[in-house]
Prior knowledge:
With 297 residues, the chain is an all-alpha fold. It is built from twelve helices and no strands.
Amino acid sequence: MPLTQTSNTTKNLLILHFTVFIWGFTGILGALISINAVQMVWYRVMIASITLFLYFILSKTSIKVSRKQFLQFIFTGSLVALHWILFFHAIKVSTVSVTLVCLSSFTLFTAILEPLMKRQRMQTGDVVIGFIIILGIYLIFKFETKYTLGIIFGLSAAVASALFSVINSSLVQKSEARIISFYEIAGAFFWITLYRLFDKSLLTETFSLSSSDWLYLFLLGTVCTALAYVAGVGVMRYLSAFRVALITNLEPVYGILLAFLFFGNKETMTPGFYVGAVLILGAVFLYPIYKKRRNQF
């Protein structure tokens, strides 16, 4: 491999690791921000939409899409909104570690939903990986009963994540990923705004948050959402899908380590939790390896 190509690959691997590290930091910000999950996600997608729009203007990138694509992206945005609301609410009622481990189960739900939605045959290996993840979830439920509500919301967030991932895997065949992301985030903002008008919480929105909340929300909307996504999409041009999938699976690991650094004893769990977490994360890491080998035969 030429030296310049090796250097370019190394640079993009570092960018991807940094991007995944930032995604892992999202859960920390969710725990630090004092407002509720719906309000938090509303601010997040508003800030991210504005940031991405400015990015497209400055980079002179056209965001023109067909009417059909526009509607598809906006409606998919409702799933993005639901996923993030469930994710942050899970953190509020449990811990960052519990939520991130439960969110890792989206691999299981993707393996179930993708064949159903695309009318494909489910592979035996997918079922085996799925059973390992289910066993891990069972252990977490058994040993962390005080966080049952958080586990339920975390698993629900994983289902929503799997749904829009399967939908996006089809949409990305016809449109650029960052354009899809912009419209989906804007769509999330639209649907949450409608919801907040319906429950009248938006009518009493004063925007009088604490300075720390504003700082964390700004970081969440710009660095952890807009910037991280653009960087993440950029490296996909130079790295294989296998490498991207394997490194992306480090998100819960980075997040859990950061949670220990920020919150200490609050993130300490029972031994049963860690056994379950190892089973889930182990299955999640094995999944792209299994997929790559299966595709070779």
